[in-house]
Each structure stands twice: as structure tokens, then as C-alpha cells.
Task: inverse folding
């Protein structure tokens, strides 16, 4: 979790009224407003060097509204570990991320790619309503029938159009899952990537898998690991679903167990000051050329390469139903280079690096894994039609661009007046 930075003032909100008060103050005084939930922004948007920082972690109440329907109201200041633990006694779970300490708001507003994404879709696909405070200080409860454009923009558009204080979510009837990991020899990476890709294409939708290649570090040798989650406690079904993964390389480790879903979420923090260069692409077709380009990055400098399987339920939602438009993505390709505190962050744009050779196979990027927030980076997230619609919603609800310390989509300019 990152530090606060050095803002001029911090508001620790406990209610939507606290949020509204902070918004009124920032708007009326022209103060820069930064909103912080879990504090995990790779692009450092959870910290501020000036202005007002609005910390919403106090908005962390989690209430089961209708157990039979799985309807849950989640404060956006809660963490996903808190959510998983609170819902476990009810036999419910929400697929959202893979780290317990990540905040609900920061992850969910960008989409939310979790360990059951192929069975239950993105986190936003379970959202049926929200409470949001807009730039005018008004507390609104929105859903498909009330402020539908705003509701559309909240699901995938980040924090551009307001401060979301709670989400109404239809949780899945999941108590326990089968979770496992396969470790492979690292001399066979080209075949490993292709084998994982081929398995993904014929995979059971109940299975979500992630292939991670990590370089040698002072803490250990290089590793090639596929972690996987089968969204039911069915060991026989899980074993059948992952059987093909055992043949894509030389297996040196094979672990699996039925565990409560809450135990799947990791509980780790990035040390303060740790630097990261990160790129990602949402790819409809993991072609051999795309995989080769991704693997080539690891030859230039120590690079972590992660392939996150998508498809399944992600593609069951129309591309224009939410502000996350990449519904045809087969996988997300992520490349990252890390630096310890105080050391220069290694670039992914150096001599010999060619991230564009990977990105050209994608339809855009996932906002949650962007390491910068400039206009070019933000434009890479949204297809043109989605970006234009977000800009129009922004004009309607935040014409002064108060919520600009985000992966910001500025408000669209006013339409030209009709000339007689």
C-alpha cells in the first residue's frame, strides 16, 4: 500500500455526507481532489503532493440485503479480503482481483478481473446498483433505470464521474473452490506459452488460469507457474479441467486443494517506494506472433510476464453494456519490471524493447494495470466509441473536471449551437 504523499489536507470519510462535504469544499475553493480507497494504484493516483486527499476507507460496511438472491451492499472503502470473509458464512463470493488488501472501489470501477472471471465475469458484471456522489455534491442512487448513463460509466470508467460510496452486487453462490498451482521447467517457455494458450481455448468455463513467468531475483531462481482456480469444490471436475495443463511442459511441482474462496486471495503488500514499469494489452487472439513478441521482452531485461485467461463469462456481456468494452478478449498480457526503493525504475521502452509488437495484437489496455495516467495511456484503454460516450457522460455530471486525478477522460466540449 502506498503512503498518502504530502497533501495539504486529508478527509477521512465515514458517510456519503462526508464525501459530499469534501467535494463541495474542493469545488468551491478550486482545490485539487484526490480520492483514495485501498491505495494500490500502480500509476500513483492514490497519493497526492498537494490539495485535498479524500480517504474513503471508512466507508467499509458490508451488508447482505437478500441472501436468497445473493444481493450484497459493499462500501467501496472495504477491501476484497474483508468482502470475502464477510460473505463466506453465507456461502457467497464475488470474483474480484487476487489480492486481499486491494480496495473495492479502485478495483471494481475499472472492471475487476478475478479468480472466477471465466465463470462469473468481471466484478462490474455483478453490480446492479451504486451510491455515488457527483461533482455537484449530490448523493445519487443509480442503476439501470436511474441515471443509466452514469451507471454505465461507473462500470469500467474508473473514478471519472463521481465518488462511489457503495455498490449493490449480486454475489455468486460459491463457498469453496479448488485452487492449485503447476510449476514447470523454465527452459521450455515458447512451448509453455503456446500450450497454455491452446488449453485456454478449449477450457471449461469453471476454470480460470494465470501463467506467470518471473525472472531470477536475489530471493530465488526464475519460475514458470500456472495458478488456477476451479469455481466449485469438485476435485474430480477440477482434475479433469486441468489435466491438459500437466502436458504443456515439464512439471516440477503440482499442488491442489479444496479451500474456502477467501483463502484464494493473497495477502501481500508492495513495499513503500517500490517502483514498477508495467504494460498490458487485452488480446482477442493470442497468436504465435503475439506470444513471441511478449517473450522477447524477457530477453532484454529481467521482466515478469503474466498471461491472464479471459473469455467465458466475460464475453457473455455485450461490448457496449458497460464502459469496459473489451468483451472479446481471449487473455490479458502483462509485462512488468520492478525496482527496489530508491533505485531507478527500469523502462519497458528501452533499446531492443518493443511493447508495441505486443500491443498491436490487442484492442486496448486494462485501466487497473496502467503505470501512468497521461492522455495517451488513457486513450489506450477505451475504443473510440466508448471514449466518446464517457466524455459525454463526464460533460453531463462533471463539466468542470473536478475528478481529474484519475485515468482522466475530460468532458466532451459543448455541442455547437444550431445555426439558423
Result:
Amino acid at each position: 500500500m502506498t503512503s498518502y504523499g504530502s497533501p495539504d489536507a486529508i478527509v477521512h470519510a465515514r458517510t456519503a455526507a462526508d464525501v459530499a462535504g469534501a467535494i463541495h469544499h474542493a469545488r468551491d475553493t478550486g482545490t485539487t481532489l484526490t480520492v483514495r480507497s485501498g491505495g494500490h494504484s500502480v500509476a500513483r493516483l492514490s497519493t497526492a503532493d498537494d490539495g485535498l486527499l479524500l480517504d474513503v476507507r471508512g466507508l467499509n460496511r458490508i451488508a447482505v440485503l437478500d441472501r436468497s438472491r445473493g444481493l450484497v451492499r459493499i462500501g467501496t472503502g472495504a477491501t476484497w479480503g474483508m468482502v470475502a470473509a464477510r460473505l463466506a458464512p453465507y456461502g457467497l463470493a464475488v470474483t474480484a482481483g487476487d489480492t486481499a488488501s486491494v480496495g473495492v472501489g479502485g478495483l471494481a470501477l475499472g472492471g475487476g478481473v478475478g479468480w472466477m472471471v471465466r465463470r462469473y465475469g468481471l466484478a462490474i458484471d455483478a453490480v446492479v446498483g451504486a451510491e455515488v456522489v457527483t461533482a455537484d455534491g449530490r448523493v445519487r442512487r443509480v442503476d439501470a433505470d436511474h441515471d443509466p448513463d452514469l451507471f454505465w460509466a461507473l462500470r469500467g470508467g474508473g473514478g471519472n464521474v463521481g465518488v462511489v460510496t457503495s455498490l449493490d452486487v449480486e454475489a455468486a453462490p460459491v463457498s469453496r473452490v479448488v485452487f492449485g498451482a503447476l510449476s514447470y521447467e523454465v527452459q521450455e517457455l515458447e512451448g509453455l506459452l503456446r500450450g497454455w494458450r491452446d488449453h485456454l481455448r478449449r477450457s471449461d468455463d469453471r476454470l480460470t488460469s494465470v501463467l506467470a513467468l518471473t525472472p531470477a531475483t536475489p530471493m530465488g531462481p526464475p519460475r514458470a507457474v500456472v495458478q488456477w482456480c476451479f469455481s466449485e469444490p469438485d476435485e474430480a471436475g477440477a482434475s479433469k479441467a486441468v489435466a491438459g495443463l500437466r502436458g504443456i511442459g515439464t512439471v516440477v511441482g503440482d499442488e491442489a486443494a479444496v479451500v474456502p474462496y477467501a483463502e484464494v486471495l493473497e495477502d501481500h503488500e508492495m513495499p513503500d517506494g517500490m517502483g514498477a514499469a508495467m504494460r498490458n494489452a487485452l488480446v482477442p487472439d493470442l497468436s504465435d506472433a503475439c506470444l513471441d513478441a511478449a517473450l522477447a521482452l524477457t530477453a532484454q531485461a529481467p521482466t515478469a510476464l503474466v498471461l491472464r485467461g479471459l473469455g467465458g463469462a466475460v464475453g457473455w456481456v455485450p461490448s457496449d453494456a458497460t464502459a469496459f468494452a473489451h468483451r472479446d478478449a481471449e487473455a490479458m498480457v502483462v509485462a512488468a519490471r520492478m525496482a527496489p526503493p530508491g533505485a531507478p525504475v527500469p523502462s519497458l521502452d528501452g533499446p531492443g524493447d518493443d511493447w508495441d509488437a505486443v500491443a498491436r495484437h490487442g484492442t486496448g489496455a486494462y485501466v487497473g494495470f496502467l503505470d501512468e495516467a497521461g492522455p495517451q495511456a488513457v486513450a489506450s484503454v477505451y475504443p473510440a466509441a466508448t471514449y466518446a460516450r464517457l466524455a459525454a457522460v463526464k460533460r453531463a455530471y462533471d463539466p468542470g473536471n473536478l475528478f481529474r486525478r484519475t485515468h482522466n477522460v475530460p468532458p466532451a466540449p459543448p455541442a455547437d449551437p444550431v445555426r439558423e
